[in-house]
Design brief:
Length: 300
């Protein structure tokens, strides 16, 4: 085949999705035009995006494997191997199923536990990618903190607020970004959460928000199907300490439109309900994207 996505991302054809995603993020940090001013960076980034789009779609990945198997003269054995891997991966997940065979959807949707479901999903990804030892949680900003950036985005009608602050954390004198959010939960109760990010995590977050905007606007297949909602995208970013932030694109069972969700919380926090889950319109997500990019620039 003319385009080999495994070669572009420097991963083995047997690599699972977590390895592929990690390789994509690592190479994006190296070749993204925002950080790499080389003449070939933009073309390389387009190539990385194309490879990742292919390999994260099960149908496209199976087609690539089939083409590679035919070219190598061992199509039958390779197809069986990939089919076994895919079947094993699918059967090991309690929530994932192929779009062609969605699970039965009983009765009407029950949204009382949606926030907890989404938080558990984000924490699951967090646990898979986190370092063995978390970095120490920074000191929160004080009235005497010298800020490199302060941005605030409010939606007074919905009672949602996001505050982004970049400052030097002492005594290490490292630059950190503190993202604080508040929003009412499904019962109308106020919830809050915060995450601390270094420059590497901030870069990952800007990539995740950009991808979430694309999926929010384009027709795509769900990666998870539940009785009351489908998940089209989820990426969790590990923060400093045990904090994390995640972006998800979901669609309710009886709603034709996708919606974006922002999750901010702390793993093993004082109670399981610490943290915030809030819906975001496309316009608001674009505004958040601009703020996160400004924060990343301030951290360089």
């Amino acid at each position: 085949m003319d385009f080999n996505p495994y070669k572009v991302l420097a991963v083995d054809p047997s690599a699972d999705q977590e390895v592929i995603a990690a390789a994509y993020r690592a190479l994006s940090k190296k070749f993204h035009p925002d950080v790499n001013k080389g003449p070939d960076a933009e073309a390389k980034m387009r190539e990385l995006n194309r490879a990742y789009d292919i390999l994260k779609d099960p149908a496209q990945r199976r087609q690539v494997d089939s083409d590679m198997a035919r070219n190598s003269g061992s199509g039958a054995s390779r197809d069986r191997s990939r089919q076994q891997t895919y079947t094993s991966s699918s059967s090991s997940s309690r929530t994932r199923s192929t779009p062609q065979n969605p699970p039965p959807r009983p009765g009407g949707p029950d949204w009382s536990n949606l926030g907890d479901q989404l938080r558990r999903g984000a924490e699951s990804i967090y646990n898979n990618v986190r370092n063995a030892v978390d970095e120490i949680k920074p000191n929160p900003p004080t009235n005497n903190t010298l800020y490199l950036l302060q941005k605030r985005l409010e939606d007074t009608a919905q009672g949602k607020t996001i505050k982004v602050q970049v400052y030097y954390d002492s005594p290490g004198n490292r630059k950190v970004c503190n993202v604080q959010a508040s929003a009412p939960n499904e019962r109308g109760q106020g919830t809050t959460g915060e995450v601390f990010l270094n420059s590497g995590s901030m870069f990952d977050l800007t990539l995740a928000v950009a991808e979430a905007q694309r999926i929010l606007q384009e027709p795509t297949k769900p990666i998870e199907m539940h009785s009351d909602h489908d998940v089209y995208f989820r990426q969790a970013i590990q923060g400093l300490g045990k904090t994390y932030i995640a972006v998800e694109i979901v669609k309710k069972t009886r709603n034709p439109d996708k919606e974006a969700l922002l999750l901010i919380g702390e793993k093993n926090a004082r109670t399981e309900r610490d943290g915030v889950v809030s819906t975001q319109s496309l316009t608001r997500l674009q505004q958040i994207d601009r703020i996160f990019k400004a924060a990343l620039e301030a951290m360089r």
